[in-house]
Structure formats: structure tokens, C-alpha cells
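Appendix B. Extra example for self-study. Work through it before the problem class; the solution is given directly after the inputs so you can check yourself.
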Amino acid sequence: MDSKTDTSEEFAGDSTEAGGSQDALKRAMAASTSATAAAPEDTDGGPVAVEIADLNFFYGDFHAVTDVSLRFRTNEVTALIGPSGCGKSTVLRTINRMNDLIPGTRADGRVLFNGKNVYDDDVDPVEIRRRIGMVFQKPNPFPKSIYDNITWGARINGYKGDYDELVENSLRRAALWDEVKDKLRQNALRLSGGQQQRLCIARTIAVEPEIILMDEPASALDPISTSKIEDLIFELKERFTIIIVTHNMQQAGRISDKTAFFMVNDKRSGYLVEWGKTRELFFNPKDERTEAYISGRFG
Amino acid sequence: MSEFATTNHYGTETDTRENISRRRTAGTIWRYVFYLSTSIAVMALVILILNIISGAFGYVAVKNTIEPETLSERGAPLTELSSEELIAILEANVSTGLLRRLNFEEPLAERSLDDLVELVRIRVVNPQIEETWNLFPSIFNRREIDEWMNTKAEPGTRLEFRVWLTARFIVSPQNPDPQFAGVRTAILGSLWMILITIVFAFPLGVGAAIYLEEYARDTFVNRIIRVNIYNLSGVPSIIYGLLGLAFFVRIMGPITSGAVFGASATTDPTGRTVLSAGLTLGLLILPIIIISSQEAIRAVPQSLRESSYGLGGTKWQTIWHHVIPASFDRILTGAILAVSRATGDTATLILTGAATVIFIDPRSLFTQFTALPIQIYQWSARPQGAFRNVAAAAIIVLLVLLLTMNAFAIIMRDRIRKRRLM
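Solution. C-alpha cells for the complete assembly:
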């Protein structure tokens, strides 16, 4: 409790309006430079799949995310971590424009997908979502058969191959085939939570996206199901770029190549504190707020 | 820590027990209040049903105008006579005008024996009802009935126990004599009307609900529209009747009467047709269908929409493949209730001109018609007591019709629901 109050006081300087004293201003500048200064060392890895530049996000008048700049590289798993309300899910959902579905929201800045800003006027969000798949926090299969869950996305996107093959391959890649191969016509809602979530992953990879966004995919599951999902993510990164939001620090440590740590400032707006290789961020954080969070002193 | 352990703010163990028993008492009282309200509701229903049943059965005092045994020389009952004898009786006893009409409808010589017996019974024997009693007085107050028979009955009056709701009652058309009146025209009229109402209001209502829930932005104008739809659902049906009279019957008259389509022989040039009434009832239940469909669509979890969009579904695909199937059972539930309301509605029909006395079955959209509620309303207003028994029988028919329609819709809905979850 105490450490939390301390840190939030420390970060009060993050708001430039606070008091207006020189001291506060200096601290604010230090804080904001430290947030962006953590970026440049990301030079290794594959080609950049998605780059977020100066992203600000608003729910109506509420400034939910402030000045986020990040890069995601091909065939890597990037974890977004941070305390509740720090905007990590919001950032994730700007990448495939899922936030468009919420009325009154606005995104400023750029989200470059293969070099093209997904928020440009000539970009169709349907195409973006088809190429950037998403797995949600709560397993949300369609109330249809397992088979139809896999084939629906393929069908609407003009899949020309064999559907039985697609269903088998997708379920195998999601490590679900053996459990459901005898009941493909059964309603997906009768599966367990963990199976449902793997079905959602199978459904997503069936349309062969380039990137898969995962919004706390294991937070509603028991430890065994969670570990299955984690194993799956590890295998999927061979083919896909994965961006995952998680509350579970150990999970981020286990499965991700890169980690981005978000915090929330005193105006309840989320910002990026530091990001880089997971190993470095966990064992040698540059920012003391990261260290405090990772070592469990707050958040 | 120590302070928390030593100071007790909840009193002794006895205080705790007293507190719990006090709370339990309050709970028990409320339980009886709820029980009582349920009982009152059930009691009201039972009284309603008993009252209707009581009206549909009971003793009648009947006096034949001519005793059937006196009609034939042999003195045999009507059922034992031959066709020729029955025709002879008819020719001897009814006016030539009526004979001509009957022969025009279907030549007497070609009619079946049962038909002829029925004709003789209605036209010649012509039983007159002197007095009727409901079921409960018939059972529990026999003495009063006997006393009436002994003191007030004219000679030749018989006491008969009569079931008013018979198969003949259901298949016969309206008749000025309560003994021979039936609800066939009214049932057919009601069915035609409801069909038009459903075809008109269901797609329109569901469509409007989809627009309002899935497409309309939260603007000032849209909010006004929403509030007004809610208000419209509470507007009394007589006001819809006035609207239907002004718009469908008068202004749209040439269309609703079928004049522009060339239908004229059997129709009413003013537009007081089954089509006008069906459309007016459609307007009446439109807000109800819109609101219940909106609620059904709103109950579809956002996560289902997200999973569709997340796979690259368009808005229309999301609505058509996921939102509508997921909400369809609830949409149907709302529609069932709305259609029940339309089926039983009377005020609208009075104004849009459902005829009260009509003998011909509706044959097209543009025919005049009558409906069950109108028939019931009209019969209960008649001075002859026997019509109230007829009305009670018609009420049972209406209730059974409603129950059948609802049961059919509910079975259909449950099938949809089951298929979705299996």
C-alpha cells in the first residue's frame, strides 16, 4: 500500500499542470524522456510487423492513452504488461481497429502495419481485422458447432480449399484436434473454458492472419488450461507475430521475446514506461518504476 | 489488532441471536406478502375461467313453435322421415320467398338428409328460448329453475341442458337466432386479420429494431425516436383505431378496398376490409415488436459481435450470421405477446369497421369481415339472455385459439433455441 502512494506522488510530476513549479516541470520532463528514451535499443530481430508511433487514444473526452511508441517484430511474441487501467488493452485494440466498435472513441497518431497507417482514410478496417486476428479475454466461440466455428471466418473471407482439411489443420495447430475430432458437429459452447479458448485460437489461425492479438487469453482459465495456451503461443510464433496483453508477470516472462511495460499517470491516462527484450526488462530494468512493478512492490 | 479483539460492537451472543431472528421474521412476513399476491392473481384467473365456463353450459327453457311430431302424418320424429317428407314439410310451412332462396343456394332435392332435418328444425319447428341459466345456477339452484318452470313457463315448454360450445357452433356462420349462431366467419376473419398483421408488423418491427440497435448513432434525433416508440407502445388501441379509420379506411380506401386492383364484386368501396384492420393492428403492435426486438438484440453479448468482427466479418455479416440468430428466440417471444394482444383487440376493429353481422367467409384481402372479439362484444350487448351464453362459448373459442397460436409459436421458438445450443 505504502509503496503505491509513494510512487504515485513521484509521478505526479508527469502532469505538466501539477503546481507549475520548476521542480515539477523538470521531473515531468525527466519522466517523459525516460518513457521514450527506453525505445531506441530495439534494433535486433526480424522485420517490423507493426509500429505504433505517438499514439494517443480518447474515449470521448477521456484521454486513455498518452504518447505510446512501440515496434513489434515478425515472429516474435511481445507482451504488454502493467497495472489495471494502464491502457495496454486499448493499445492492443487500436492495432486491428477493434476500438472503432465503441462509439465516441478517437485514435491520434499512427499504427503502421506493413508500413501503412491503419487509421488512414483509404484503409478498410475489415481488411485490417482479417489480416490481424484477435483472441479475447473471455472465450467467445460462436454458438454454433465446432466445425462451423472454424469454417465461418474462412467462408466469409473466400477460402477456396477443402473445409474438412482446414478444420483438422486449424484444430491440430491449436492442440485441440485430439479432444474434439469425434464431436465436430457438437455445439462449441459445450466445451470447457480452456477448450473454447483454444477453439477461438484455431478459428483465428484458420483465416491465416499475419498477426495475432491476444487480450489476456488465459486470465479466465485454470492453471492447466493456461499452460496449454502458453505452449500453444510458443509454437504459434513460428508462423505468426503475436502481441499479448497479460496480467500475469510470470506468463510474460515465460512466453515473450519482448515486453512493454505500461503505467497509468495521475490523470488516469496510460503511458509506456519502458520496453525491450523480456530478459533485460525483467532482470535489468532501466526504470525504477518497472523494477518496482516487476518485483511486486506495487500494481 | 488487540483493540479489535477486545471491544465488541455487536453485543452478546444473545443479542446476535435476537438480531438474526428479527431479520428472519422480516423475511417471513415478506414471503407471505408475495405468496398472497400470487394467490390473488391465481384466484382472479380462476374466477375468470369459471365465469366463462359457467356461461357456456346450462339449462334452457325451450318452446317449439310447432311440435315436430305433429308435422308428419305418421307422428314420427324428424330423424326418421325421408327426404321427400321433409321437403314436403318445408314447402308446406315456409314462405315462397325463403323457399326460392334456399333452392338458389342449393336445390332442396340435392341436399343431404341431415341438412334437411336441420332446415326443418330451424325454419319450421323453430324452437324459442324462453329463459336460460348458467352452469352454476343449473347445478346448485335447481329448485329455482323448477319453480320457474312451474309458475312462469307456458305450456309446452321443455327444460333442456345445453352445451353452447359445440362443433356445430364452431363451423356455423353467424345467425340472428342464438341457438343457431356460430363463430366460423369470426374465426376465419380473425385468422386472416392476424396473418396480415404478422406479415406487416413482424418484418417491419424487427427491421426497425436492428436499425436502431446496430446502425443508429446516439444522436438527439435518434433518442427522440426511441423515446417516442416507447410512448407509442402505451397508446390505447382506440387511438390506433382512429388512425386506421382516417388513413387506411378513408385516405387509402381505393387501395384497401381493392378498387384499384379491380376487385369490386364482394368488397366494400369504403375500405372497411380485413386488410385495413390487419394493417391497423400491425401499427398497434409495431412499437411492441420494435421494443422487444431491441431488447433481444441488446441482450446479445458484445463479445459475440467482437468475435465476428475479429475474423474480418463485415457489419452486415455480423448482424445476419450472429446477432439475429442469437436473438431470434427472444424476438419471437416478444412477437408472440404482441400478436396475442392484436388478436384480442376490439377497439381498433370497432373503428376500422369490422362488420358485426356477416354471414360470408372472408375470401380475399379486400372482403368485409368480422372477428372473434367483435362478435363477443356484439353478442354480449344483445338483450336476449341466450346471446350471453353464445358469447361465453365464443370467448372459450377465442382463448383456445390464442393458446394454440401461442403454443405453436413457443414450440417453434424452443426448437430454434435447442438447435442453437445442441
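Self-check: DSSP finds 18 helices and three strands in chain B. If your reasoning did not lead you there, revisit section 3.
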